[in-house]
Amino acid sequence: MELDNFSFVVPVDFRLHTPEKPFCYDPYCPDKEDRFLIAEVAQFVTDGLMTSDEATDFVEGRGI
Fold it and tell me: Of 45, 2, 39, whose CA–CA distance to 22 is shortest?
């Protein structure tokens, strides 16, 4: 009797953090506490590039 040994590999072809998407969906990730990133998003709101709701979604990793 021949036994097959399998190991499952789940390919991941995306990164959680990129320059375009610095925040991820993980609520416990330290990116939620990064003062520099939060200040940058706050400036987007001040400049009228995002609404406050969009900024909140962006920081929480939900995108826009």
Answer: 39
Structural domain boundaries enclosing 51? 20-64
The pTM of this model reads 0.69
* Domain annotation covers residue 2: no
Residue 1 Cα to chain centre, angstroms: 48
Do residues 10 and 19 make contact, with C-beta atoms less than 8 angstroms apart? no
Tens digit of pLDDT for each residue in 24-40? 888 899 999 999 999 99
On whether the CB atoms of residues 17 and 31 are closer than 8 A, the answer is yes
Please give the full DSSP string across 1-64, using - where no structure is assigned.
Answer: -PPP---------S-S--SS----S-TTSGGGG-HHHHHHHHHHHHTTSS-HHHHHHHHTT---
